[in-house]
Amino acid sequence: MAGRSLAVVILAAGQGTRMKSALPKVLHPIGGRPLISHVLDAAAGLSPESIIAVVRHERARVTEVITNHAPHTTIVEQDEVPGTGRAVEQALAALPASFDGSVVVLSGDVPLIDVATLERLTRGHVEHGRGMTLLSAVSEDPTGLGRILRDGNGAMLGIVEEKDASDAQRRITEINGGIYVFSRHALQRALAEIDTNNAQAEKYLTDAAARILAAGGVVDAVATDDPWLIAGVNDRVQLADAGRELNRRIIEAHQRAGVTIQDPATTWIHADVTIEPDVELLPGTHLHGATSIATGAIIGPDTTLVDCEVGENVRIRRSEATLAVFSPGAQVGPFSYIRPGTELGAGGKIGAFVETKNAKIGDGSKVPHLSYVGDATIGADSNVGAGTIFANYDGVAKHHTEVGDAVRIGSKNVLIAPVTIEDGVYTAAGTVVRKDVPSGALAMNVAPQRNVHGWVAENRPGTSSAQAAESNGKERA
């Protein structure tokens, strides 16, 4: 930027009626973030002196998201005068009078713009001494978009919105991308002259091009060969298209960084996910939020992780986990449901059809199948038998269960919290543990089994069971 200062204005005042949603358009998410957050990140990548967001529709909700994501953003509310020109005019009023640098203008619903493109645009703007530089593209179907007007020598003459364009102008295929760099003072002078005498009765920012040219300034459009960079989101179809394209770019970046992704078409990765090299993602894997995955892990198929920390060489199959930590060498699944607060130690296992919640499971410990472990701490080298339930809820409050090291919980146990099972304990199959168990003890329920002879013949006569019992009795005789 040759020492010139820089400010960024983000337009986020629109209602977005075509979304047909109670949620403001710029708050609809792709890649795990609201649209406006992607634009804020691109703006921050330029290291500007100021970032100003212009809001109006659902001001409080939009402002909350903006300030949570980028706390140093200045919020400006657009007044009753409609149009992008008026929005930018009010944003300029929030800049110090002494600011004489460049102003980048972005739209809050154009989420795929990247820092590299903006850097090239701003650099060229300053180097060529322009009053206005905009990003354009050539589109086979420019319907609904502003057209770039040029003379016979290719010099830019201005921008015309489609509703104000003639039939000849509508045949122009170079479109306005809605991303601009202005000289602050050239822009301010131009905006002061712009009126609302147009088909939409709005103060168009695009009219600044003709005003700057008329004042002797330099204006040019720089075409990009990547139309996704200027793709706006106006309805749910475009939202899905942008989300799919962002996901494709995220996946490609991970692949080039050393991650194996077997089926990109069925793999979805949020923008904040981190993955180390030599991770393998199998078909149907979804990685959401701030999930991090260490080298050597294999995730999938058909697995969803939300805000999880996955250690080296972890294996997770056909499972769903949220806010969980899996230490190196752990195994999960298939068909495990891992709820928030679960921590699985190194070499530990959570197996088939197991649900866990707020459970800390120690190194080498295993919950292999068909169990529920909630509000519990399990030490190292312990094993929980099939069908075991940690009964943590008494109808009013949740209670904690403590299981020590090298404990062997028998199949079909129920552990009634609060209860402590100390180190080295065994529990017999079918035991209901209601009292603490000291180290080295065997816990069991002592009610003897009782066989009632002849019960089936007496109570279920004529059934297949009665017939089988009778047949077996004759064979023995």
Largest sheet: 14 strands, parallel
Count of helical stretches: 10
Whole-number mean pLDDT: 94
Task: Report the sheet-strand fraction.
Answer: 25-35%
In the CATH classification, which architecture of the largest domain applies?
Alpha-Beta Complex
Question: What's the number of structural domains?
Answer: 2
The helix-and-strand class reads alpha/beta
Terminal Cα separation, in Å? 102 Å
What is the level 1 CATH name of the largest domain?
A: Alpha Beta
What's the CATH topology name of the largest domain?
Answer: Spore Coat Polysaccharide Biosynthesis Protein SpsA, Chain A
Give the proportion of residues in helices: 10-25%
- C-alpha-based Rg, rounded: 32 Å
Low-confidence segments, ≥5 residues, pLDDT <50? none
Mind telling me the CATH superfamily name of the largest domain? Spore Coat Polysaccharide Biosynthesis Protein SpsA, Chain A
Give the CA-based shape: elongated
Total strand segments: 39
